[in-house]
Amino acid sequence: MAYKLAEEDKLCGVIYPTYEGFSPIPKATCEMLESKCDKTEIIVKCKDNQSEEDKKPESQSGSASASASESTSVSESTSESNSTSESTSESQSSTSESASSSTENSNTPEEPKPTPEPEPAPKPVLTNEELDTIVSGKLSTNTTLGNYMVNQNNTIILIGEAPFEDIEAYKKEITDKVGDIPELEGYTVEVVVNKINGDNVGEKSTGAPLYTRVLKITKPNGDVYQSDPMNIGTTTETNIDLLEALPRVEDKFSKIITKDGQVVEVPEVSNEDKRTFEDKIINDLKAKLPEGTTVEAVLEGPKYEKGSEVLSGKTNYVLNVRTTLNGVVSEQTYNVPHTEEAPQEEPAVPDAPEEVLNEVLNSKLIFGNGNMDGNVLTILNFNGETITESIIKQFAEETRKYYEDKLNEGRPDSSKYKVEFTITQRKHIGDSLSPIDLETSIFTSHIKITKPNGDVIEKDKPVSTFVIETL
Prior knowledge:
This protein is α+β, with helices and mostly antiparallel strands. 26% of the residues lie in helices and 26% in strands. Strands 18-17-16-21-20-19 form a six-stranded mixed beta sheet. Strands 5, 6, 7 and 8 form a four-stranded antiparallel beta sheet that branches. A three-stranded mixed beta sheet has the order 4-3-9, with no helix packed on it. Helix 2 (58-78) runs antiparallel to helix 3 (83-106). It is elongated.
């Protein structure tokens, strides 16, 4: 006969099947189980009413569960049930053990397991057309290789090849950009630079490229992309050839007066005249040179002076010219032609009057005064000062000028006398003096007169000194 378990006998945490139409299980009494209940303790633990003391290790819980199962088994075996009742009891016991074990295991917290991230989908490999766009855009550069040197007429005078260091730097500039382009992650980029023929020396410059570049890109799948050759820009520098732009200075500037191969006069030139000449050269050059050229021109001179010998090829002024274009400086010095003129003829000027010439040559000259003790010179003064070498020279210069002015009085500059005059001291303080020619024995002088026609007159002139004897 089959029974259904009463609600109060059901274990918590266990799901029991529902049986309809069956009678409840008969209740066993202590009298019925007296022989087995005195030493048996049945403990049922549920999650809701379990105390802290009841939370014992899993081994204890297992032991209690086993006791409960054993007790249940004893109770059920004492009742006189049929095979159906016995089967139900065993099923309930097994269910109770499973529920108890499940309840105890649920009290041990489990560590959360990290959720694995899904692997990213592989990036599609770029097509050659997509790489064409990157190569011409993100991997482009304005850096140039090679240069042309041209003159002011844009004619090539020199072609400069790029040094090895510049080519390597150009390649590195491009490959360094790869790391900043996400699309090229996992790609390998190689830059190949090739030399090509451009413009030639002697031709007009067109700025034709001297180098090309080719980019080889290895894709992640091993395929290799290669770009078409692309031109690399060049630079053009203008080097001004001043001698070609201005072979020589044709305009004359300044004049010198010459006679018999010598310069007799160099007329002065005003600063305004110099500036006017310089500005004319500057404007003429700017009209011939490329736009933006800075031109400077400065006159230097005069190179001749009165009395200079006239030399072939030597000009009175030179012109220093400097041009600057794009930081390139060119300099050139030019001779500036001058005009040579003969002096204007002046009426003949007679020599100085004879009486004037004689006065200069023969007039008495007095210089200084002295004292003598016995025959020894003890004092020698001039205007109250002891005579020194500088006082002698000063007196001689004043005398020379006096004589020259006297001879040239009323004469033109082209017909002047020239006078040279010196005084020599023969006796000094402490020297013995002879009573013969006492006054003229201390100093002597010499005069040299050059006439306008070049004739020379020289003469020694006595110098008198007043000497008194100390008593």
